[in-house]
Amino acid sequence: MAACGGYLTLRVHTGTLSFETPSGKPFDLLAAVESIKQAGTTGVWTAYAKTSPPIQGCLCALRKTHEAIQEAVKRILKVAQNKGCQPREKTLRYAPYVMVFTTFPAETYSEKEILEWYRLHWQVELIFKRFKSLAQRGHPPKMDEESAQAWLYGKLMMALLTEKIIPHARTFSPWGYALQT
User: Fold this and answer.
1) Angle at which helices 111-135 and 145-171 pack, to 10 degrees?
2) How far is residue 59's CA from residue 151's CA, in Å, rounded to a whole number?
3) Rounded to two decimals, what is the model's pTM?
4) Are 147 and 140 in contact (CB under 8 A)?
């Protein structure tokens, strides 16, 4: 991908992706992230994603706030309870961190910039998710391409208008003023 001018940044899911050091030994991700002790502090390490062929990049991690850690643990425990099992100890130990793997050049982008770009990417994903919900996008009811495109544009227009109106609707009162408390 980088040979074609593209780079990737993805969230690390420890159950599906593992890493090795530049010398080919297993990378101890847990030990690396647990060295980050303070909320808001970041860490960065050179590593290879164990794929075929291995992909060289950087692991960037951020320690969450105490409140965010509690929420993450709560979600992990809820998912485990719904599945009728206990979460793995390692899963709970990874909960305090946001970890991403990137192929962006470390000499050009700091770990904080990479994490910020990842955060912005996530905000865009949430907007698309909200738009899909607002527009109730499904299968276009038309069979020809032009009708389907018009249907989709109509749905997108409705979602954009709804997004624009929501802030105004929160401040609107049918009688023209807020009630005194």
Assistant:
1) 100
2) 43
3) 0.70
4) yes
